[in-house]
Amino acid sequence: MLKSPTTEEAIEKKQASSKKRSTFKLNANDKYFSLLFLGPSLLILGLFVFYPMIKTFYISMFLTNTLGKTSVFAGFSNYAELLTSPDFLNSLVVTLAYVLGVTFFTLAISLLLANLASKKLPGIGIFRTLYSVTMGVSVSVAAIFWLFIFNPSTGFFAIIANALKLTPINWLTDPSNAMWAVIITTVWMNLGFTFLILLGAIESVPQTLYEAASVEGASPRFQFFKITLPMISPTLFFVSTITIIDAFKSFGLIDLITKGGPTNATNMLVYRIYKDAFYSGNYAQASTEAIILTVIIAAFTLLQFKFLEKKVNY
Amino acid sequence: MKNTKKVILPLVLVIGAILVAVFSNILTNQSTASSNHKTQIVFWHELGGPSEDALKKVVDGFNKSQDKYQVVPKYQGTYDEAIQKILQTHGSSTSPAVFQAFDISTAQMIHSGFTTPIQDFIDKDDSFDVNKISPVARSFYSNGGKQQGMPFNTSQPVLYYNATLLKKYGITPPPVSPTYSDITRVAKELYEKSDHKVKGMTVQVYGWFMEQALANSGASLANNNDGHTGNPTEVNLNNPASVKFLEWIRENIKSGDFIDYGSGASAGANQTAGFLADKVGIFIQSSASIGQLTANNKNELGITYFPHPDGQKANGVAIGGAALWISNDKPKEVQQGAYEFIKYALKPEVQAQWQKDTGYLALNKDSQKSKVLQDLYKQTPAAKVPGQQLATAKPNYYNSGILMEGMQLTRQLEEIAMETVYNGGDINKALDKADKDINANLHTLNKANGYK
To answer: Could you state, in order of their start, the residue ranges of all structural domains in chain A?
Structure first.
């Protein structure tokens, strides 16, 4: 889909710029109509997006009392306190580790599976179905399923460890393992969808490219890195963006599997906001955290579009 | 294209029919409820599963017992989330007339000024003898000598052990009010004699148990007598009672007989599964688990009081569970109806059936004589123990709960301290960190609320 500036485009540009000039001179009728058409969406956006955002920022400048009402003006002291609190900084680090871990393993494993499943072999359909089956599993089912596996006395891993006379791993009670436990669970949940999208992308790479490469004597590894990867890069970009955003928002699995513990080892930002607001009733702190999270996600998205998109072949 | 058009029309009709059915059902439900001439009492609660069924029995019983009021129970999710809903809806048309609020929200409820103290109704009512209700449970929800909320679903933390396993390995069971070292002995013996196949004990990472260890040792967490003589301004978790409790656990972790199931509901479920599968011999849990532990247990269940430190007498533990409160944003008639419902729920026969159905303790002293409970004790003699623990404790400041705001966060921080120790951290450092964080939150909260 490579496009070079053509005469057609140049004409379009010209038209657009002439239109731009004309839109500056709205007559009364146009103003009325533009308001009529924009009004409803502005109203809805204002009510459900901008008002809550502004209100959240407002609350973050106060202390809130037991009833959840703003009481004492605090200025930016909520921000200063949070950004110097070791627990909050730990939450940031943990969230980043989780997002990076989940994105890396989801992409690596599903790419491997998609590459394998794209081979034309008898019975490959069975494997394609198996690999994508986690797409139909809901968060709560996955959490319960993995909780059974991680159970320290009756779980699958514990049984294997006992049979081999090894000490069982404390998956959910040891802070350093708990992070792996939630990453494994999330990656497992993500695999189905990512696999399917990547498989579709690999299938749509023209066969002629591979044929030409084979004639030249290129190894399968070379073909994968020099043909498959560049050709599916737009899809990879899309999938990585989706996975990163999803990982930032991850809530259900954390709530069901670790509840942010042990010793805050899996206390991600989103989960922390929920706990501060709806468990502790500390709306001021939760609002402050929400604003900080918004800034972080905005920065991430910007970076991604600035740097990653340039490397993508469209 | 033609085919899809053929499908769309029936699809729209089917979806439409479903929507109509659902909404008309909601509408008719509302109209039938308002068409009879009873006063509606909206009741918010947080009991799910089998307890919810048992609660519905209580509500139905009340609705049939008189024809003035109609109590409408509505499930509101977890205890923690419900508190926020109650506080945020107060004064609106959706707010409840009577609601269930859990133990550690008591200070919040009193300070909110959103409730009418139950004492106001009791004082006007000669037919209700409040002395029949367990004093330890009552003192938890009273302030300044006034009953604020009325204890309802009430549990006690107790220690469960697998009596069949102890018999199998020839181990003397712990006494009914054990010390920490009594439990350590049994746990170690079980672990060694079973050839390390059965872990001796576990204590779930749960702030409630930490607080109970303080209560049972006669120590307080917050100043001003745990908030009973004034709003707390400082907590002191790093005290000898907490240290002894955590040292007891650490000793068992070091000798290998302890297994850590972590925190939260999944940990509770995991340890119950481990206990029923003979993987662990001793654990501490709410008395409300008795039903589950007797119904699915092939082994004989042993129960003792919550353990206490060596060389001192047990002070008695505080209760857990929740109380019923009356909102003051409803008309007098509705509030009176809410009170009548609470009174009904505490009747001896209602409480007896409630204990049998749920495992929560019957709070009315007269319930013990009822046939329902006598039959239950005959069937499972151990089921008597939690009630005895409740009856023998004399209420004092230490075992009447901690009347302090921010208890939800306090519990989380206590749990982090426990987790740190379970994973090999230093006890004093972990407790100091918890103190620092709890105090910081408490100071902010007091400042935001304008308390001195």
So the answer is: 85-281
Check whether domain A85-281 has CATH 1.10.10.10, yes or no:
no
Measured between alpha carbons, how far is B168 from B194 in angstroms, rounded to an integer? Answer: 9
- To the nearest whole Å, the CA of B175 is away from the closest chain A CA by 27
Neighbours of B298 (CB within 10 A): 7
| Of the candidates A279, A263, A260, the residue with the CA atom closest to the CA atom of residue B104 | A279
Query: Rounded distance, CA B241 to CA B214, Å?
Result: 6
Q: Give the other-Cβ count within 10 Å of A46's Cβ.
A: 11
Q: Does B258 contact chain A (CB < 8 Å)?
A: no
Biggest distance spanned by C-alpha atoms of chain B: 87
**Entry field: residues in chain A:** 314
Quote the pLDDT of residue A2: 43
Are B268 and B141 in the same domain? no
Q: Do B169 and B305 have their domain in common?
A: yes
In B, minimum Cα distance to A170 occurs at: B260
Contact (Cβ atoms closer than 8 angstroms) between residue B178 and residue B307: yes
The confidence band for B434, taking pLDDT boundaries of 50, 70 and 90, is very high
Enclosing domain of residue B197: 157-318+406-449
CB atoms within 10 A of CB B443: 12
Whether residues B82 and B136 fall in one domain: yes
Length of chain B: 452
Q: Are residues B76 and B165 in the same domain?
A: no
Please report the pLDDT score of residue A307 as a whole number. Answer: 76
pLDDT at B31: 44
pLDDT of residue A3: 45
- Together in a domain, B129 and B242: no
A–B CB contacts, 8 A cutoff, strictly below:
113
Which residue among A71, A170, A261 sits closest to B448, beta carbon to beta carbon?
Answer: A71
What percentage of chain B exceeds 70 in pLDDT?
96
Domain count, chain B: 2
- Dig out the tokens for A150 from the structure: 């991680």
Residues B148 and B260 in one domain: no
Which neighbouring-strand residues pair with B326? B98, B116
Residue B27 has pLDDT above 70, yes or no: no
Given a cut of 70, whether residue B36 has pLDDT beyond it is no
Share of chain B above pLDDT 90, in %: 81
- Report yes or no: A254 at the B interface, CB cutoff 8 Å: no
Using a CB–CB cutoff of 8 Å, tell me whether A162 touches chain B: no
Check whether residue B215 and residue B305 sit in a common domain: yes
B318: DSSP letter:
P
Residue A170 or A22, more confident: A170
d(Cα A288, Cα A286) in Å, to the nearest integer?
Answer: 5
DSSP labels for A197-241?
Answer: HHHHHHHTS-HHHHHHHHHTT--HHHHIIIIIHHHTHHHHHHHHH
Three-class SS of residue A173?
coil
What's the average model confidence in pLDDT over B144-168? 95
Domain boundary among B363, B378, B393: B378
Is there a domain that residue B1 lies in? Answer: no
